[in-house]
Amino acid sequence: MLVFLLLLLDFCIQTSGQQQTAPPGRCDVPQRLAVHTDCSSCAVSITANCPHGFTKLDTTNCSYVVQIGGREVELEGCQHLCVENFMHPQCCPGHWGPLCLSCPSWSGKTCNFNGVCVDGDVGNGTCICDEGFSGFACQECKNPNAFGKKCDKVCDCVHGVCNKGPDGDGQCLCQPPYTGRRCDQVSRGCRGCSSFSYCKGEEKEAGCDCLPGYRRMKENRCLVSCAQRDCDVNAHCSTQASNIKCICKPDYEGDGKICIPKNPCLENNGGCPINSTVCVFKGPNKSSCECMFGMSPVGGSPEYGCQLVSACSADTCDPTAVCQTKLDGKARCLCDPGKIGDGRRCYGNLMERLIELDSRGDHRGNLTGAIALFERGCSMVLSHSGPFTAFFPLLKQPLTGVNEEVVCKNHLILGQHLYKALEGRDLNLYGGEKLRVKVNKGLKCLE
Ligand SMILES: *[C@@H]1O[C@H](CO)[C@@H](O)[C@H](O)[C@H]1NC(C)=O
Ligand SMILES: *[C@@H]1O[C@H](CO)[C@@H](O)[C@H](O)[C@H]1NC(C)=O
Ligand SMILES: *[C@@H]1O[C@H](CO)[C@@H](O)[C@H](O)[C@H]1NC(C)=O
Ligand SMILES: *[C@@H]1O[C@H](CO)[C@@H](O)[C@H](O)[C@H]1NC(C)=O
Ligand SMILES: *[C@@H]1O[C@H](CO)[C@@H](O)[C@H](O)[C@H]1NC(C)=O
Asked: Strand locations in 136-225, DSSP E?
């Protein structure tokens, strides 16, 4: 039991360690996993443990099938209900992928509120825009000439560019020398404007001004200037000739409009040995190798690989069982062939147990007669059928003048039972007789 509690504690430390490194976009949800242990005889299942990390919640009855003399017999048994509470990793809404990155946004609005992001753990972080919208964050109208919150109005500039898009108001920025609401009149004040400027104002007040996104420089020239919102927050904005260029910062990759932290784990397991370690993302272009559950580093660092820590100690399994540490770090106990049980306890054949009881302990020497009886009367049955529960008579001397086969078979019942469970019940003995086990009387059961 002590071992079990220590394992649970270990498990808690592991989970809280994972929570500390959870990235900001993670909204893990508590989950409960329930499993039943295999159905086996109640006598055996009483010592069965829940899987590593699970807690025993309840024990229920069930039925299991054994082969007895070539036919299948259904026996009543017990199984445990085991539960494990854990945090299931999940991205917060508006976040996607194994790193739970933010979905594209425009002015702080996810997909500009004009579309839905393919978010969640298996999402790819793209915005699927509503009808009429486009752009990586649905920040543009599909019709390049449309404007208005719903992209339902159409610009009608004749010689000019429209303040278009969902944020636009449809105003025309007239190409010099044109002016007017629709840029269909010529203004004298707008002759000789430099490149990337438009004609602002009407008639006599009309003059040159730089287009939005351009700044007035020396000699009235207009030069393109960066606006950070044209690029991802993890990109540098630069100007080339009259174009804006977005380039992802080092350790990020993408087209500049969307930049994603480089995850070294996605390629070749981040260089971590694949059969004993996991690659853990630590930040843009940063990762580390960690040993798989239940393993410890071989050469001082997980980068060189890990090996299983033996989960077997002296009291993990029945002394006659073989203990193995499995890949999941859990101990598996295997009873000797010919014995039954879950490995934590193995029950040998009844004759062996009888001889063992006669040779030491409370009943030393008092079962010698019973050994003779079972050897002569039941050895075939015991080696070919079963499982049985036996009532061993306290007999120092062998019985004489009886049919040993009949007497022996009437000391057997089919299946494995706890004495407590037999009390007050009518039993069919294997020899055909009936037996009532009275509470606190007569029979001594040697399990
Ligand atoms: C469990 O026990 C109840 C009451 O004794 C019985 O009705 C039910 O059939 C049993 N279930 C199994 C699977 O044996
Ligand atoms: C992202 O996923 C959606 C939905 O599964 C799909 O329609 C879209 O093509 C994907 N985009 C990319 C870039 O993979
Ligand atoms: C990513 O990190 C590796 C190792 O630290 C380095 O060699 C590489 O240049 C980095 N890549 C970028 C694009 O910064
Ligand atoms: C992992 O693979 C290597 C090479 O294939 C092998 O030498 C090593 O024993 C394996 N380790 C485990 C824990 O399986
Ligand atoms: C064997 O049985 C006798 C009589 O019932 C009892 O006195 C004795 O203590 C028993 N032997 C052992 C080793 O318990």
From this structure: 140-141, 146-147, 153-154, 160-162, 172-174, 178-179, 185-186, 197-200, 207-210, 214-216, 222-224
